[in-house]
Design goal:
CATH architecture of one domain in chain A: Orthogonal Bundle
CATH topology of one domain in chain A: MetI-like fold
Number of strands of chain B: 10
CATH superfamily of the largest domain in chain B: Periplasmic binding protein-like II
Oligomer: heterodimer
Structural class of chain A: mainly alpha
Distance between the termini of chain A: 40 Å
Largest sheet of chain B: 6 strands, mixed
CATH superfamily of one domain in chain A: MetI-like
Chain lengths: ~300, ~425
């Protein structure tokens, strides 16, 4: 009788999982398996009756100079944006966790950019960073008499990706800050009191308590911003359209171009699988590293 | 009836009401006509009600509001159709439409390309009556190697170098005919503190097309030979491109162009901040609207060397075909039939300032484009990517635009850039085998 009741309860819970599971299978698992399947074929607009080509697409992916460039760009973007986002979000969260009268207003202001689509933010910043005479930032720079500063923000190939990273960090730091803020509020105040009694200064309290106890939020933030960084597309599309040349093209950009512009479905599928594997590996390594850090707190 | 049974019954009742309502909304238009049990009175009252208009969506790459007259005239003649024009940015149209068509969706009428046709997304138009109304040139350009026609052009488009007439007059500048003269004019304007050439090359198309305008003067219409494997771009475009990119060495064209959009470039020109821009017929309507008193004209791209003929970049691209999975194919064909008539074509080019593609269409060139009259009259207008019959020209030119940006940025030499283009074409042709 007891066992039947237990099965019934378990079934009820599993029934609740069913809608999500169906969505997961239809919108992720099935397309992913299809992509893996097509990546071993020569399926394209010119070969609708495809045949199997083994690992040829994977070999070609690593010979394609544009794909290599897009992988390098993506790694650069993901690493820099993740680092900057977290380095800025922690002090911001600490500051806005203090007893400020305007803290709720400031939290909203910093979080606001994240509420908009990356495309809108990208277009907005492309007006600000435009190298034309009407570009807002350049106009300001010239008005301030500091026109010697580099001002071809989106057009100089060595500066364009840095500008894209700046915009991405500007948009997403508020979101990371909110997660750190939530974590900060769960740190017991007694811990700060005890280190104060031990004679620790503010920096030592931050280093030994705050930074250490922010580990769970850091795991989430670093993981999600790295994955987001690897999938970056919309901000680049609006800011530079992947240019100049291939200077800011990301892996997703290459997948879109090969898949939806050139209709090389199998090749784009191979590229997607490579991206999936890279993200999976990096996520696993990160999870392992940060989980150990969390265990140390416990 | 216990509470559980009552709840189940009411649930079933609610579900059946929802399903009935869905069914009614889906079949509402046809149910009255098909149901034999309907009384005469009901049929009469149904026929007196105004029929619901069939919506036909059509992608345009201009401001849709500019076509209000065309829409009005069409709907006056076709009161059962609601023509809905939707703007789509040219740079993204290919990707957006491809994903929409692949999902069995998308607009009823849209710009089509050879890949869409191969995928079965574009409806074959060979048997449509309006095909015979196309001018010979337009028909030739839109007919594929296997004789298929899946897209109808609505206009010819063309572009050259637009110039500010006042700046030219104030500085005593003659219209340049060769690229050396163009560079000399630019240097003179620069010395006078005027930005000679405004370039908004964020998407790569402005410099890329300008370069091809100069290349054409070297007699480089080679696409049929390239597809036949008889010629390469490395051999044919080298002289023209070497000449063109001298503008980079002289600081007339630079990487600052990549940080500017076409809109930025046009606005600068209209505000008198630059003396020239490389632009075409499709921008003229908006330019007149933004600055009605601004006085400008256009000249063909200067030739690479003296004695060569000057060309304009242009073609019959644009227009549209019918989505093969559209629910309103007949209605969409009626829209094309109207636009591809002398009346519709005249209304279309009155907005776009392009040239006619339908036999018997009335209309002349906008005065601010008169500088291209002789060039167009002599038929010296061409766009290499439209010359392909086997490979997808749009993808070819997208690669060229990217490569051109890399040459301007100094990341590739002209020779390296041309090799990239040749390799791309070779790969596309190999894929067709």
């Amino acid at each position: 009788m007891f066992k039947r009741e237990k099965i019934k309860v378990t079934l009820q819970y599993e029934l609740l999982l069913l809608p999500a599971l169906i969505g997961f299978v239809i919108f992720f698992l099935y397309p992913s398996i299809q992509s893996i399947f097509y990546s071993f074929t020569n399926y394209s607009v010119n070969k609708l009756d495809y045949s199997f080509v083994g690992l040829r697409n994977y070999v070609n992916v690593f010979k394609d100079e544009h794909v290599i460039a897009s992988i390098k760009n993506t790694v650069y973007f993901a690493v820099c944006s993740t680092l900057l986002q977290n380095v800025l979000a922690i002090p911001l969260a600490v500051a806005l966790n203090a007893k400020l009268k305007t803290k709720f207003l400031l939290r909203m202001v910093y979080f606001m950019p994240w509420c908009f689509s990356g495309l809108i933010i990208g277009f907005l910043w492309s007006f600000i960073l435009s190298s034309s005479d009407d570009g807002l930032l350049n106009h300001l720079i010239h008005q301030l008499g500091i026109g010697f500063l580099p001002n071809n923000w989106l057009g100089d190939p060595s500066l364009a990706m840095k500008s894209v990273i700046f915009v991405a960090v500007w948009q997403t730091t508020g979101w990371a800050m909110i997660i750190y803020l939530a974590n900060l509020q769960s740190i017991p105040a007694e811990l700060y009191e005890s280190v104060k009694i031990d004679g620790a200064g503010k920096f030592q309290a931050f280093w030994h308590i705050t930074f250490k106890f922010l580990a769970p939020a850091m795991t989430i933030n670093v993981l999600l911003s790295t994955i987001g960084g690897f999938k970056v597309y919309d901000q680049i599309l609006a800011l530079t359209n992947g240019g100049p040349g291939y200077a800011t093209e990301s892996i997703t950009f290459s997948i879109m171009n090969y898949g939806f512009s050139e209709n090389k479905y199998a090749y784009a599928s191979a590229l997607s699988v490579v991206m999936l594997v890279v993200i999976l590996l990096i996520s696993l390594v990160q999870l392992r590293f940060f989980s150990k850090r969390e265990d140390n707190i416990a | 009836m216990n509470r559980k049974t009552a709840a189940a019954m009411s649930g079933i009742l609610a579900l059946s009401l929802v399903l009935a309502a869905c069914g009614k909304s889906d079949n509402g238009n046809t149910a009255a006509g098909n149901n034999a049990a309907n009384t005469n009175a009901n049929s009469e009252s149904a026929s007196n009600e105004p029929k619901e208009k069939v919506p036909v969506t059509m992608v345009v790459q201009y401001n849709p509001n500019l076509f209000a007259d065309l829409e009005k005239s069409f709907e006056a003649k076709n009161p059962d159709i609601d023509l809905q024009l939707v703007f789509m940015d040219n740079a993204q149209a290919n990707k957006v439409l491809n994903s929409q068509f692949a999902a069995g969706e998308g607009p009823d009428i849209a710009p089509m390309n050879v890949d869409f046709f191969k995928n079965g997304y574009a409806y074959k138009l060979n048997d449509q009556p309006f095909i015979d109304r196309l001018s010979d040139g337009a028909k030739l350009a839109t007919t594929q190697a296997d004789g298929s026609i899946f897209s109808v052009p609505f206009e010819t488009w063309f572009q050259g170098i637009m110039y500010n007439k006042k700046i030219f007059a104030d500085n005593g500048i003659e219209i340049p005919k060769t690229w050396d003269e163009f560079l000399a004019v630019s240097a003179k304007l620069k010395a006078a503190g005027i930005k000679p050439l405004g370039v908004g090359d964020k998407d790569g198309d402005v410099i890329g097309k300008m370069a091809l305008g100069v290349v054409l003067s070297t007699g480089a219409i080679i696409e049929p030979d390239v597809e036949a494997g008889k010629k390469t771009y490395s051999a044919s475009w080298k002289t023209g491109l070497d000449k063109f990119y001298e503008a980079v060495k002289q600081g007339i064209i630079g990487t600052d162009a990549f940080g500017m959009s076409v809109d930025d470039m046009v606005n600068e020109f209209l505000n008198g901040k630059s003396a020239m821009i490389s632009m075409g017929s499709w921008q003229v309507a908006d330019m007149h609207k933004k600055a009605p008193d601004f006085d400008f004209n256009i000249f063909p791209y200067p030739s690479a060397a003296e004695g060569q003929e000057q060309w304009a970049i242009g073609g019959v691209a644009g227009g549209g075909g019918v989505n093969a999975h559209s629910k309103h194919i007949d209605e969409a064909l009626r829209v094309l039939d109207y636009i591809a008539s002398p009346e519709g074509d005249a209304q279309w080019i009155a907005v776009t300032h392009g040239g006619p593609v339908i036999k018997g269409t009335a209309g002349g060139l906008d005065p601010s484009l008169s500088g291209l009259q002789d060039t167009l009259g002599a038929g010296r207008t061409y766009s290499p990517w439209e010359g392909f019959k086997k490979i997808n020209g749009e993808n070819f030119v997208r690669n060229w635009f990217k490569t051109s940006q890399e040459i301007v940025a100094g990341r590739k030499t002209v020779d390296q850039g041309l090799k990239v283009i040749d390799d791309y074409v070779a790969e596309q042709l190999k894929d067709l085998q």
